[in-house]
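Example 408, ligand adenosine-5'-triphosphate.
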Amino acid sequence: MRLSKTFIKTLREAPKDEIARNGALLSRAGYIHKELAGIYDYLPLGVLVLEKIKHIIREELNAIDCEEVQMSALQNPEPWEATGRFSDQEVDIWFKTELASGGLLGLAPTHEEPMVNMMKTYVSSYKDLPVYVYQFQTKFRNELRAKSGIMRGREFLMKDLYSFHTSEKDLDDFYSKVEGAYAKIFERLGLGDSTYETFASGGIFSKFSHEYQTILPVGEDTIYYNKDKSLVFNKEVFNDEVLAEFGATKSDFEEAKAAEVGNIFKLKFKYSEPLGLKYTDESNQAQVVYMGCYGIGVSRVMGVIAERFADDKGLVWPEAVAPFKYYLVGIGEKGMDAAAKLYTGHENEILFDDRNARPGEKFADADLMGMPYRIVISDKTLDQDALELTDRKTGESKLIKLVDFRLD
Ligand code: ATP
Ligand code: MG
């Protein structure tokens, strides 16, 4: 991408009402544009980050045999009425709208009901199971407070996976596979050393579900971890009774702020029973389908990564999710020509600052936008037949001979 050709611009000021650092930095650096509190547009650089996050999730889920679908955002109230969740008393974050021909529709805050309802068309025998289906989908939630930038959207991108099984054992085995996939996903996203699988409430068999919590000072959640971080609880379940089950006491734990980047549930029959998702077993008996669900907040992950690694100069992307690996600056006529040569054929790896701007301005934007490496080619570096490569994270620079430099 050539900076002179894109419509995006870095901004001196963040939107006035943007109090979250991720929202402010991502706005200033040209990744997002704020419409309203909790409602954001994603600009070309922002879309690239979301796509990289999705790619990592997709690879790891496909590796455990999950299939990708795309469900509708507009919701038929019927299946939601069957579980009691269309009621605003039960679920207080609905956005609802109306058909021109009359009748209510919902904008999906999640997809258990339509997913189970859809499966009734395709699952009828034990031979049809198991099924593992996921999507990347915009969810709509009328969140009361949306002050955390893209970490809490009223419209946001979620990856939601649903699994369907004939037995508890099969659900357990798949649940473990998802735990393995999630560990790899957060590792690849650069959050491996700060993200913990925590015990949370809401499990159906065992009393627990699990959350994935990334340690973050501005996180909205509180977690408690023991010395070697082998036991981590969220606030809801951190009490004497639960701790006793694990042979622990409160004094073994430290508190930290964290952001929930994902969660996983063994739902058992919670949705399949009221919606009547059944299969016939080998002896021709009707049985209710076992179910699990597994979420990751894709746009929240982007905000968490932005918050976690940013410094006083701007964003710092881990290589795996950076829109481009390199930010290329040409200085002077010869420098610009040599930079253009390096850029050609590497349009997907390099963001080329080919603007007619002062070097200081280019360097400031390079820091703000946060690509992992900055390359500078100037008359000075060319005197030594070299370019200068700077690591955004450490700030370390080195001169590398042009003939020795490989983009990889
Ligand atoms: P929270 O407690 O933060 O509101 P939740 O329990 O409502 O989260 P789920 O319904 O389980 O979340 O959604 C799955 C994932 O989607 C969450 O783990 C989180 O990463 C993400 N998520 C939830 N709400 C939002 C939101 N308003 N904006 C962005 N991401 C969200
Ligand atoms: Mg919520």
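Summary: The first strand starts at residue 32 and ends at 36.
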